[in-house]
Amino acid sequence: TNAIFTGVPTTVFEVMSRLAIEHKAVNLGQGFPDVDGPEELRRIAAEATVAGPNQYPPMLGLAELREAVAAANRRFYGLDIDPASEVLVTSGATEAIADCLLGIVEPGDEVILIEPLYDCYLPMARRAGAEIKLVRVAPPDWRLDRDALEAAFSERTKAILLNNPMNPAAKVFSEDELALIAELCVKYDAYAICDEVYEHLVFDGRKHRPLMTFEGMRERSVRIGSAGKTFSFTGWKVGYISGPASLIGPVAKAHQFVTFTTPPNLQKAVAKGLASDDAYYEGFVADMTAKRDHLSDGLARLGFPVLPCEGTYFVSVDIAGMGLGEDDVAACRTLTVDAGVAAIPLSAFYPGKNAPKTFVRFCFCKRPEVLDAALDRLEAYL
Ligand code: PMP
Ligand code: GLN
After folding, report:
1. Which residue among 16, 37, 157, 253 sits deepest, i.e. has the most Cβ atoms within 10 Å of its Cβ?
2. Residue 4: its pLDDT value, please?
3. How far is the centre of ligand 1, averaged over its atoms, from the C-alpha of 321 (Å)?
4. What is the pLDDT of residues 280-315, one digit of tens each?
5. CATH class of 4-30+279-381
């Protein structure tokens, strides 16, 4: 059947946000901050809008943003990226993922996805003609098993799509796990499409390490970032891809027919943002760590078993035995409609069979008073 898009449901983020609005629930479902990013960057975008030009920028992205992406690769990861041929600016990481799949995958190629997975991966990969191989990781530690991963690779593997830090698992892949993925990519001559939108959201002294920095991976990886996540401008939809010219070339061919370009005023502001001092990046992590602890501690106090959160801006809880409904989907409905707090069922991230059905994800990048209001509502309901 080629009816994949007619068979694909509306994304869970939109469904839950609509339900949250309808029931005036505190929305801890869809992941977005409730405080906009730095005012200085908003002013740059505003001034660039007034001053213009507001016409098509270069297809690969403004030179100043491509240079800023290359500089950030060097500064944070010691990666040597050529801004002229190894960076592509996109309209959000979502477009970047689509471009990478369309540019790299040929119909019939196998693509490996790790479950639970971000919801656009599977329909987009299928649409690109991929045959999907799913590898599952399980809570609480979401450990990647060597045998399971090795079993997914074959001579037909074209690429693995890796989300690190991982939404919704809130996992940061260990050095060992990344080394294993790199080893198998090299062994099977496969590419890695690395969705690293949460690269600057890792906690407790962890440091993000791109798969691209592992031996043999520089020439076979593309790395995706998002200004939505790094600067709290999810509505801007500015993303960027770094990778070897041999991959950026075909990926840019997809980009030229998907959006062609990204608004120049926003690109200007994001270029400035990427060059922010350490205080910005450190302050961002410190603020999000406090929010994570605020919500995690609050949920634990209410009796929810809370899973660890190493990165991203999500925490998940086990709702088994909490009396919220027969499964996570029912529980999220109850939480939104009756308790007044929207959340996301983790089963939405599992296209495979026999998904766990007792986990619910909350987004914590909200003001303290909003987190308190959500916790108060939950307490009143439970
Ligand atoms: N990848 C992951 C893992 C995400 O959680 C998100 C969500 N925002 C995206 C990609 C999409 O990013 P963008 O808003 O930049 O398109
Ligand atoms: N990435 C966000 C999340 O996981 C949602 C983005 C979207 O709505 N597409 O909640």
Report:
1. 16
2. 63
3. 32
4. 999 999 999 999 999 999 999 999 999 999 999 999
5. alpha beta
